[in-house]
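> @MW can you paste both from yesterday?
MW: sure, first one:
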Amino acid sequence: MAQITASMVRELRERTGLGMMDCKKALVEVAGDMDQAIEHLRKSSGLKAAKKAERVAAQGVVLARLAEDGSRGVLVEVNCETDFVAKDENFLAFAEQCLAAAFADPELDAAALLAGGLDDRRQKLIQKIGENVNLRRVAHVTADAGGRVGDYVHGNRRIGVLVSLSGGDESLARDVAMHVAAMNPLVVRGDDVPQEVLAKESEIYAAQARESGKPEAIIEKMISGRLRKFVAEVSLLQQPFVKNPDESVGDLVRGADADVTRILRYEAGEGMERKQEDFAAEVAAQLETG
């Protein structure tokens, strides 16, 4: 008998959208053959949910919750297929359940939370609303001693931010979180920009500069200047504060005897490939086969 590993169960769940136990049973019945397990599940009562889970769920919401004392916060991203469902009360209720479960146990990631009971609710929701739904990401931020965590969720709930400050107060933390939501900095400070990012930008600037035909010494100065500008643009503390562009975020927090220790920003669907439907081609194909 083939050994059924946790990674096999996880892969089948990701490929079908069905529950952990259903996936494990299917793998056991077909001696671990992934393709046969998928076929088995499609023939079973999970067919409807499995079909929906094949579709990309790249819409959705990001929700945040803070501890009352600001000592910690959590972000969750819950996805669906369409913006319409992202506003549905049943979907939003499930998203709130995910947030509450994540806040209650900071040790659990998205997969563990689903395995802990949320996946059954997710399956029922898929059947009810007719779209794939998934808890994609969970992240926690904890404040350092004497600091606090602030949050901000944009009005449409597509962007959520957690910010950890040393010093400062609730109002400052929320202002910085709002700025992060709006301006999407890559890092907190310039020294945090990864070397591979700088190398890639330098390569791009070099190629652009050499097209100008200028001497190499001038080109090197051009690259250096553009890199400094790039670092300033992507570093939180160097960005002009969104509420008052006359001061930087760094000036803002230093004026409050505070500092930013961490930022976390989620945007619903970021990095996911959204399926582009070509309805004209689909109709034409149906006509050809009809």
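MW: second:
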Amino acid sequence: MRLSDTIEAFIKEMLREEEQSCELKRNELAQYFHCAPSQINYVLSTRFTPDHGYVITSQRGGGGCIRIVRIRETARDHLAYLVNERIGESIDEQSAQILCTQLAENGIVPKDEALVMRAAVSRQALGLPVPEEIKNMMRSRILKSMLTVIAQRKQE
């Protein structure tokens, strides 16, 4: 397991224990994992974003105190946000893969469905001889279609 994955898992475990939020100090966490504080910043900025369901606030000084808050919303609200605001007319493969993984981690879709979604928007599935911009537009439409069906299922 990579260090970034280990740090992410550690913070998520802290959030499980604390429920909605947790506070940590960047320097103390860096010392604990024997890494530079910039590694902690990297994990926070890439894996604890609003798209992943988190809001981060930080205080300057005092070792860099950081508060991570898990956003609680209904599955329908989250799906509507993804379809109407987040995905847009185009989405790259990496962003689509992350989005599918987060849907499973947040319990919106079962893990096996997330794997199927990931496969449907993968480079292999869209391996057509067309420009990447076109593939990203196709990926967006496929993902939006799947999310719309999931949202309708959640209403039933």
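> thanks! The CA atoms of residues 86 and 139 lie 13 Å apart.
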